[in-house]
Amino acid sequence: MRTTYMAKPNEVERNWYVIDATDIPLGRLSTVVATILRGKNKPTYTPHVDTGDFVIVINADQVKLTGKKATDKIYSRNIDGNPGGLKQISAGELRAKDSRKLIELSVKGMLPKNTLGRKQGMKLHVYGGADHSHQAQQPKTLDITDLI
Question: Would the pTM count as exceeding 0.85?
Fold first, then answer.
């Protein structure tokens, strides 16, 4: 009989990682961050348990948009549920206005659309500059240029 390992929610060990987004394509950055948030990079990954780590993304202002995504990729939201309430913004405008929101939308779109996915999304911290307020957690710097 083969036994398998199943992670228990109170026994998960969480690490903190810092990722520098300077000149990294948005989609490549988002897939790596979403994988770490879900815990799929660990041997203890269990689909129904949050086994992921915390991720800090710095220099979000310098994330790279390849091709014509800066003008052609549109983010839409409906404010009041009526057709007149539809607001649209291009990825380039969103990066100029609030680059943190651009990365958050991209990563959270790759997480599960349920309670577990929302819990995993709360472990993402994005900063526009090189400074962050999580020095007390002693985060490890993760170089993702070799992962992409």
Answer: yes
